Amino acid sequence: MTPAWWGALAGGAAGLGVVLVVVRVLTIRRPSLALRVLPYVRDVPQLGAGPRLATPSASTSAASGVFGPLLRSAADAVERLLGGAPSVQRRLARAGLDRTVHDFRVEQVVWGLVGFAAAASLGLLQALASRANPVGLLVLALVAFVSGVLARDTWLTSQVRSRERQIMAEFPTVAELLALAVAAGEGPVGALDRVVARSGGALSDDLAAVLADIRTGEPVGAAFDRMAAASGLPLVSRFAQGVAIAVDRGTPLADVLHAQAGDVREAGRRELIELGARREVLMMVPVVFLVLPVTVLFAFYPGVIGLSLSAT
Predict the structure, then answer these.
(1) Dihedrals phi, psi of 98, to nearest 5 degrees
(2) How far is it, in rounded angstroms, from Cα 239 to Cα 227?
(3) Are 78 and 105 in contact (CB under 8 A)?
(4) In whole angstroms, what is the distance from residue 224 CA to residue 234 CA?
(5) How far are the Cα atoms of 10, 64, 298 from residue 255, in angstroms, in the given order?
(6) pLDDT tens per residue across span 56-80
(7) Phi and psi at residue 66, in whole multiples of 5°?
(8) Which residues lie below 8 Å from residue 81, measured CB to CB, with a gap of 6+?
(9) In degrees, to the nearest 5, what angle opens at C-alpha 276 toward C-alphas 274 and 279?
(10) Are 148 and 107 in contact (CB under 8 A)?
């Protein structure tokens, strides 16, 4: 194909993309039936704020709305190839993401398509500049697609670790606040309500979910047992189990919370000491491989030059 044909093809693809984006934007701007009816049927209206409609999933984004059936089929294919739906569901819950496994697979496909498009664009530019092997370019685009799919999974794991670090940083303060509220005469549910209303963060969100379960009629011990089962952190699991046992058996809850907060602080100190020890070893790398060779070079290079001059 001549460069003119390639330019026409690229221009047609760009024009089609602009048309699809405009159509999707017009569809999004159109108010839905729920948005128009919900303010008139809501039992408890919210003054000063519009109706908040939670998006059911990530598949309602613009790309998923335009290419929804194709993306869903590709997500099903990725699920069949990779599997591991229970593990993905646990990681989504631990990351605090309100999404299903299918929604996550759709996101993986979108990330893969972005990588495929980037690799295909580079391959097209290389083919226009010089003659290139089309098979190699196709393999490169497929590798980019697979890399994008795996990159989304790696990013989910990173999100889980980041949220767990936030929980560990917030845990001692939240536990102490709960202990102070209980020691002041509040019940477990009242103390939990007071702390959740006056704090924010990843752990507060988990405790808010526990409080919502309790208010719907679930026993306090069962709600905290569910939190212990869902948490991937041993310290948080022991905290939830300790609160559940204290509520069921009537043991002093304030002492349990103080002990849990002390355990978390001690674990944080140990982790900090271990991290410092590892950093000491890493600090030796530039000294051994950079500073020491330069020092030896400055010490011996003048002598080598002097010996060469005296030999001549």
Answers:
(1) -85, 70
(2) 10
(3) yes
(4) 14
(5) 69, 51, 63
(6) 444 445 555 566 677 777 777 877 7
(7) -80, -45
(8) none
(9) 115
(10) no
